[in-house]
Amino acid sequence: MELSDVKFACLDTETTGMSFGAGGKICEIAVSVSQNGQVLEEFSTLINPGCPIHPEVIAIHGITNEMVKDAPSFEDIIPSLLNVLDGCVLVAHNTAFDVPFIQAEFEACGVHLPNYPIVDTLKLARKSGQFASNRLGEVARQLGFSCEGWHRAMADTKMAEKILYYFLTTLNKHGVHTLEQLDQFQQKRWPDLIGCK
C-alpha cells in the first residue's frame, strides 16, 4: 500500500501499573488519525479502570483516582475506539507496551480487537541509529519538537505523530513509498537497507 493512501492512527495509553499481566489497566487513551500529515480525527478520554492507580505511576503521568472516578469504563469507549481505528495502521512509540494493554482490555470485555498493521516509532528510532536516547520525549526533543505534557496520552500521541512524519519524510528520500517498505525499516538497521539500494 502506498504511504500516501495510509491512514495512521497514532495512539498512546496511560495505565494504573507497568504490566497488564500484573493487573495493570488503562486509565487514559488518546488517538490521532492522520493521512499525508493532515489530521483527520482525534479521540481522547480518561478511563475508570475499576482499580486503584499505583502511587508510583501517578507520579509519572499525574492521573489520580479522583480524576478517573466519574470517567467511562473501557467497555463504554470500545465502540468509539473501533470507529476511530477503522481502516487505520496503528502507530505508537513502543507498541510492545500499548498494544498488549489494549488487547487485554478488549479481551476482558469479550470483544475481538481487529488485527491492525502496526508501525512502531521506537523501532524506527532504534534502527535509524541517530539518537542518544530512544525514549519518546528525548527523540522529540532531539528533533526540535515540544515535549510539553510528556506522559499524558494526547501529548505523547502528538509527539509520536510528529516523529512518524519526520521518519516518513526522511525515508521517502531513500525510496520508501509503501507500507511494506516502511515495515522493513522498522525491522532492520537503516544503514543495511539504504546501503543495498
Structural write-up:
The chain has 197 residues and is α/β, with parallel strands linked by helices. The chain has one domain: Ribonuclease H-like superfamily/Ribonuclease H (Nucleotidyltransferase, domain 5). The protein has nine helices and five strands, in the order βββαααβαβααααα. The protein has helices at 55-61, 65-68, 74-85, 95-108, 121-128, 136-142, 153-172, 179-187, 190-195, and strands at 8-15, 26-35, 38-46, 89-92, 118-120. The chain has a five-stranded mixed sheet, with helices on both faces. The radius of gyration is 17 Å and the shape is globular. 36% of the residues are buried. The mean pLDDT is 95.
The gist of it:
The protein is α/β, with parallel strands linked by helices and 197 residues long.
As for the CATH topology, it is Nucleotidyltransferase, domain 5
Distance between the termini: 20 Å
Helix content: 40-55%
Q: Report on the biggest sheet.
A: 5 strands, mixed
- The CATH class is identified as Alpha Beta
- The coarse overall form would be globular
Question: What is the number of independent domains?
Answer: 1
